[in-house]
Amino acid sequence: MPGPGEVRLRSRVTGVCGTDVHLHDGEFFPVYPLIPGHEVIGEVDMLGEQAEGLAIGQLVALDNMLTCGLCDKCRQGRPNFCRHLRALGVTDPVGSPSTSWRRRRNVTRSTISTSTQLS
């Protein structure tokens, strides 16, 4: 079961981009072993308490940046400069190819129409 503020996603599409090429070349401080692909569209499959604004079956995009929310940069509204920044698919695993647990704040409603075929 997801914990408070967490959702479980079933991955539908994972993209590999130029960042993954840089990671392969050892740039951006990757932590190995690493499965490439950090751009994820998933389907909400379970919701924890306080994971509001989403519904089971809804398609969402995953923000791979994990910030602490507590350091001076985060409190200044500059989370991309978080002093404890981690990134799924770079410093941390994205999860299994099929499912993963994520904090609600890292999941955004997808702009993909529910009529779009994803296979």
Question: How does this structure look, described?
Answer:
This protein is mainly beta and 119 residues long. It is 9% helix and 29% strand. The radius of gyration is 15 Å and the shape is globular. It starts with 5 loop residues before the first strand and ends in a 10-residue tail after the last strand. The model is unreliable at 111-119 (pLDDT under 50).
Any descriptors?
119 residues; mainly beta; Quinone Oxidoreductase, Chain A, domain 1; five-stranded antiparallel beta sheet; two-stranded antiparallel sheet; disordered C terminus
Quick overview:
By secondary structure, the protein is mainly beta. It is 9% helix and 29% strand. It has one domain (6-109): Medium-chain alcohol dehydrogenases, catalytic domain (Quinone Oxidoreductase, Chain A, domain 1, Alpha-Beta Complex).
Q: Give me the CATH superfamily.
A: Medium-chain alcohol dehydrogenases, catalytic domain
What order do the SSEs take from the amino end to the carboxyl end, as H and E? EHEEEHEEE
The major β-sheet equals: 5 strands, antiparallel
Please work out how many helical segments DSSP would assign.
Answer: 2
Q: Biggest sheet: strands side by side, in what order? A: 6-1-2-3-7
Give the overall shape, derived from the CA principal axes.
globular
What CATH calls the topology is: Quinone Oxidoreductase, Chain A, domain 1
Mean pLDDT: 80
The unreliable regions are 111-119
The N- to C-terminal Cα distance equals: 26 Å
Q: Proportion of β residues? A: 25-35%
